[in-house]
Amino acid sequence: MPQYFHSLEAAQLSESWLTIGVFDGVHRGHQEIINQLTADAHANGAPAVVLTFSPHPASVLAGREIKLLTMPAERAEILFKLGIDAVIDVQFTRELSEHSAEDFMAGLKQHLGLKKLLIGYDFALGKGRAGNYERLKEIGKNLDYQVSAVQALLLGEHVISSTQIRQAIAAGDVALAAAQLGRAYSLAGAVIPGDGRGRTIGIPTANVDAPAEKVIPANGVYACYALVDGQKYRAVVNIGVRPTFTSGESLPRVEAHLLEYSADLYGKTLSLEFIERLRGEQKFAGVDALVAQIRADIVRANELFGL
Q1: In the chain, % of residues over pLDDT 70
Q2: Looking at the predicted structure, is the pLDDT value of residue 159 above 90?
Q3: Cis omega (within 30 of 0) on the bond before 252?
Q4: Strand pairing partners for 150?
Q5: 181 vs 222: CA distance, rounded Å
Q6: Out of 47-51, 52-56, 265-269, 298-302, which region has the weakest mean confidence (pLDDT)?
Q7: Span 62-74, pLDDT tens digits
Q8: Which of 29, 33, 190, 239 gives 160 a disulfide partner, CB atoms 3.0 to 4.6 angstroms apart?
Q9: Cα–Cα distance for residue pair 29/141, rounded to 1 Å
Q10: Are 5 and 112 in contact (CB under 8 A)?
Q11: So what's the pLDDT on residue 48?
């Protein structure tokens, strides 16, 4: 049974094989590290462990909001599916950032019985990021652990990174984001009451209360898969401020029209997997023009779904 710890002190493991990082999105580059870690650890009868951080260290150190690709629990679930035995989610603070690499690694040895550390190509930890690959190997000689590094993974000519994926999603290029993530980008939230306008025009929508901490795709219309009660449905999703009906609205809404679902969704959790952006958000002359465009969006979405 996978274990999920919310502090290093709560974990008491032995002979651990470990990787450390934020792993936001658990993208294909991260998966290279995770897959190697789990394969080698399990071949040696050792637990494969991920130590990660919340909130995002850059949000603490730079004092700016970092929108997330994966919420902490979502990130842990993906890691467990990849074969990780334990996830340790450490609260990141300025105080923690002042710890020396030596002190931090000593804590890992104490609580995890660290035997092998696998890191990314640009990894460093500790005050001033002094704990780079070479320094961690030196510390390992004293603490009796080994260190290996995994090279960057490229998509075309570019290194896959969480930053690039955030930028792609914010620009609406969810297909590019999926190519880097290795799966569709997803948003999940409770279905909350809206103004009911979609039902009056024959196209009922579910308002999804998406987490404020997550990256929201650019305003527009998307072909998505919607997951509810363990079942997957085709959907067309609008993100935006609905300029045909409103003015002055600044916060975008996430509204999903499920193509094969007619039951009440209120109160249910709806997860959306973004497949492709169909178009940007538009203001129409009236309801008839809007409905005609939505019908055309549904036809195009179904073509993408292979129908």
Answers
A1: 95
A2: yes
A3: no
A4: 120
A5: 18
A6: 265-269
A7: 888 899 999 999 9
A8: 29
A9: 28
A10: no
A11: 98
Cβ 185 vs Cβ 217: under 8 Å: yes
Residue 293 structure tokens: 């465009």
Q: Taking a C-beta distance cutoff of 8 angstroms, is the pair 111, 12 a contact?
A: yes
Strands 86-91 and 48-54: parallel
> Which burial class, exposed, middle or buried, applies to 141 when counting CB atoms under 10 A from its CB (0-12, 13-18, 19+)?
exposed
The length of the chain is 307
Give me the domains of the chain, ranges plus CATH numbers: 3-159 (3.40.50.620), 179-304 (2.40.30.30)
